[in-house]
Amino acid sequence: MSLVAACCNTPPTKAHWHDKGAEVPLSTKIDGEERLTYRTGPKDSKRGLIAIYDIFGTHPTTRQFFDRIAEANGGFQLSAPLFFKNGGISEEDFRNNVMSWIHANGDYEKNHLGEIIRAAVEDLRRDGCTTFSIFGQCWGALMAVKAASEEGTPFLSAGGPHPSFVNAETVKDVKAPLVLLPSKDEPDMIPVIESVKHKNFPVESFHQRFDTMHHGWTGGRGDWEVPEQYNAGLEAVELLAGYFGKVAGVAESKL
């Protein structure tokens, strides 16, 4: 697997945001350790979301993006686990060792990411959620796809903005429709969407390209004080929240 070039040469921005949610411990210990997750959104919502940040971790633009999705389209209980024990990639590793750092800190199995996601889902379920979707930024979109490819996955949809490593091969086992919002820096994602059409999911996969946005604009590389990025970010919020609400509504209608 390889990253798009922009993922390796576009640094994080300086940004500010007042968090709407809070970090709380997961109920289940992971590999014997207590792990935290960022919880946001209306606590009476029955619709759960798992959010996976990019390699910069809990960046203010990422938190803003998550907070806004949690409040959109009627609201979701959103859980964004803190996967990276060190908080995210350092400046030195970003300059010199992006892929090595991801392999060391963002491996789905080795770093217990699947276990963390399942624990976060169970906490959402305990808090009243009955439907679940999962999304991530950059590297996180692949983690979302992996979670939605497991047997017995609870997720009704998976994907995210400016996805890395997402291609027809990595989505071949996915068991839920995809929602992909690539930037100008990602390859054409239409073949990825086409590759899962034969699965006949209850809701069709969705794709929209943001050709004026750079890789990472909804996360650590985003500067939402720039009006164009802010407006595109809000559009991404509405598209994702709308899609997550749609798949949840279809599932709820069958209960």
Short summary of the structure?
The protein is α/β, with parallel strands linked by helices. It has eight helices and eight strands, in the order H-E-E-E-H-E-H-H-H-E-H-E-E-H-E-H.
Explain what you see.
- It is globular, with a radius of gyration of 17 Å.
- Strands 1-2-4-3-5-6-7-8 form an 8-stranded mixed beta sheet, with helices on both faces.
- The mean pLDDT is 92.
- Strand 3, helix 2 and strand 4 form a beta-alpha-beta unit.
- It is built from 8 helices and 8 strands, in the order H-E-E-E-H-E-H-H-H-E-H-E-E-H-E-H.
- The chain has 255 residues and is an alpha/beta fold.
- Helix content is 34%, strand content 15%.
Mean pLDDT: 92
- Overall spatial form: globular
Widest sheet: strand ordering: 1-2-4-3-5-6-7-8
% residues in beta strands:
15-25%
Helix content: 25-40%
Distinctive features:
255 residues, alpha/beta, eight-stranded mixed beta sheet, 34% helix
Give the helices and strands, then pairings:
Elements: H1 5-9, E1 22-25, E2 36-40, E3 47-52, H2 60-71, E4 77-81, H3 91-96, H4 98-105, H5 113-126, E5 131-136, H6 139-147, E6 155-161, E7 178-181, H7 190-195, E8 206-207, H8 227-253
Parallel strand pairs: 3-4, 3-5, 5-6, 6-7, 7-8
Antiparallel strand pairs: 1-2, 2-4
Helix pairs in contact: 2-8
